[in-house]
Design brief:
The chain has helices spanning 3-61, 63-68, 96-113, 125-133, 151-166, 210-213, 226-301; strands spanning 80-86, 117-123, 140-142, 172-182, 185-194. It is of the alpha/beta class. Helix 4 (125-133) links the parallel strand 2 and strand 3 (140-142).
């Protein structure tokens, strides 16, 4: 075997080893994706109930009582915008992380062009490192849990976002994350968390039952008064909204990684075929050359 053939054979062995790794990562991502889908399905009824209760309490409280709550009071002007980018702690997931960072930075430039200040926060090491590299030092850094986020993680993030809004450091809070559609499809979503008057909480919720859609709502007596209940419900709603975004992002990350690793395995297979063909051609050329030398030697003896 010639040196060139040995080099090609070594390359084939290396590609096969990489293919084994990518296939293993694809299977791990698929298993984690199934668990993430189950967590999203389990959260939906609770999130829908919190949203419905908060909207009904807001309607019962009235606009004057709502404006009396610092967390619900709209600021007179929007001078500073807080942007939360939800990315992952790891890479090897295609455009999963980069598309969120690009969307967040694009929104930041839009706000800055309108004369507003921008405060960046990021979930995931990829988002934190990219923002830091771009000179956008994030005020909030949340890392180490994107593979399996807990509700406590969402609560910690929500508390800091609420504090930014209530303390007047941010006049609006937006969140960017990958919404899970299917294992092959993830879409960048941009939502307003605060003030809630600009979010979807005070609008009609998706999935309401037929009686509510027909306007036939049950009479509700509030004890204590709606304003006090609303003060407790709104932080829960922000927490559950952040938690939902984390779960959707986790499922999207596993789906994107599964797809990326599957594509990598297929590309490795194609490369192995090309290298094998190259090695066979080199071997055939070497055998042909040896035959020609034998024939030439035999002719010289005659």
């Amino acid at each position: 075997m010639s040196a060139s053939q040995r080099d090609v054979k070594t390359r084939i062995g290396s590609v096969k080893n990489i293919q084994k790794i990518t296939r293993a990562m694809e299977m791990v991502a698929a298993a984690r994706l199934r668990r993430a889908e189950q967590r999203i399905a389990a959260l939906r009824p609770y999130a829908g109930a919190i949203r419905r209760m908060t909207r009904q309490a807001a309607e019962a409280a009235g606009s004057s009582e709502i404006n009396a709550l610092p967390i619900l009071k709209e600021h007179e002007s929007e001078n500073n915008i807080a942007l939360l980018l939800v990315t992952g702690d790891r890479g090897l997931a295609g455009a999963f992380n980069s598309q969120i960072v690009r969307a967040g930075l694009r929104a930041g430039r839009e706000h800055e062009s309108d004369g507003r200040g921008v405060l960046f926060s990021a979930v995931g090491r990829r988002g934190v490192s990219t923002l830091t590299f771009r000179g956008k030092d994030p005020v909030g850094r949340y890392v180490g849990f994107t593979d399996r986020p807990a509700y406590a993680d969402a609560r910690a993030i929500a508390e800091e976002l609420i504090a930014l809004y209530v303390d007047g450091k941010a006049d609006r809070v937006e969140i960017f994350y990958n919404g899970y559609v299917s294992p092959l499809t993830q879409e960048v979503r941009r939502e307003t968390l605060l003030p809630l008057q600009q979010a979807t909480i005070l609008e009609g919720a998706e999935g309401e039952d037929d009686e509510e859609q027909a306007g036939q709502r049950a009479l509700v007596e509030y004890e204590p008064d709606p304003q006090e209940i609303l003060a407790k419900l709104v932080p829960d709603y922000v927490e559950i909204s952040v938690y939902r975004a984390l779960l959707e992002s986790t499922a999207s990350e596993h789906g994107a990684r599964m797809t990326a690793m599957r594509n990598a395995s297929q590309n490795a297979g194609e490369l192995i075929e090309d290298l094998t063909l190259e090695m066979n051609r080199a071997r055939q050329a070497e055998i042909t050359q040896e035959i020609m030398e034998v024939v030439a030697g035999a002719e010289s003896l005659t």
